[in-house]
Amino acid sequence: MNDIEIRAKSHELIQRFEIKTLPVDPFAIAAKLNISIRPKPWNQEGGISGALLRSGNDFGILYATNIPNIGYQKFTVAHEIGHFVLDGHMEHLQLSDGDIHYSTPGFYGDKYEREANYFAACLLMPEPLFTQAMSANDDGMESIKNLAEKCGTSLTATAIRYIEETESMSAVVVSEKDEILYSLFSKEMSELKKVKRPAKNMPLPAGSLTYEINQSTDSLGERVGDINMLDWFDNGFDVEGKEEVVRLGNYEKTLTLLTFCSDHEEILEDESMVNSWEPRFGR
Prior knowledge:
It is a single chain. The protein is α+β, with helices and mostly antiparallel strands. Helices cover 40% and strands 22% of the residues. The chain folds into 2 domains: 3-124, Arc Repressor Mutant, subunit A (Orthogonal Bundle), CATH 1.10.10.2910; 169-278, Beta-Lactamase (2-Layer Sandwich), CATH 3.30.450. The protein has helices at residues 3-16, 26-32, 70-85, 89-93, 111-124, 129-135, 141-151, 155-165, 187-190, 209-215, 229-232, 264-277; strands spanning 35-40, 50-55, 58-64, 100-103, 169-176, 179-185, 222-228, 240-248, 253-260. The strands form 2 sheets. It has a 5-stranded antiparallel sheet with strand order 6-5-9-8-7, sandwiched between helices. It has a 4-stranded mixed sheet with strand order 1-3-2-4. Helix 1 packs across helix 5, helix 3 (70-85) packs across helix 5 and helix 7 (141-151) packs across helix 8 (155-165).
């Protein structure tokens, strides 16, 4: 399924159960779908986050309680609901009586797990409720925190939805130690064709606040600093911005928000002009 189809599927549930305010309660949605919910105290740090199980014609969801974060637990339940309702997922999982499908936290190479993650984000932070809440906040990490509190979602999940909806030139980076785990660009940032999104396992810029925090044993959980786009992107533009970094709970990971202040249309015009003057060979 593509993103549009997944958003539509989540919207079907929002409309079906007449959800008109935030936060969205995935536990109540599961109950209305006749899916039983049980907490499970898995003790594997960074391991299992949840599971979808089948008993006869009945289905249940288990969610991990070893991470005491309600936003994380809500996302886990919404993820498993995604497996239950998204086209092709139950056929892929092939759950027979007594079977269990386990999920682990993070971004996945498997397309079905990625789809369930995206469904969970769309279900818990649906349009237009999420965009209406965004309009009451300024850009930046403080906005993401406010939205996470309003939606009852984790900071990371909220940052991913924020970067999808924001009109600012922004990027979200999740990292650990000296490596990038994944990154996402806003629409405006993606339109800068020469600026490449950092890939998994790429090194962090050594002089960045993110790198400094990841190497530090200091308990300080949040930092903000001024940056230039060229500090992070070799093919970037000479524009000023802000780097905001927050430590992420038990995982020793950090969430970074990069926001750039220059006029988006002006940069696009500059990029177009540069491209028009680049020599073309082999014509």
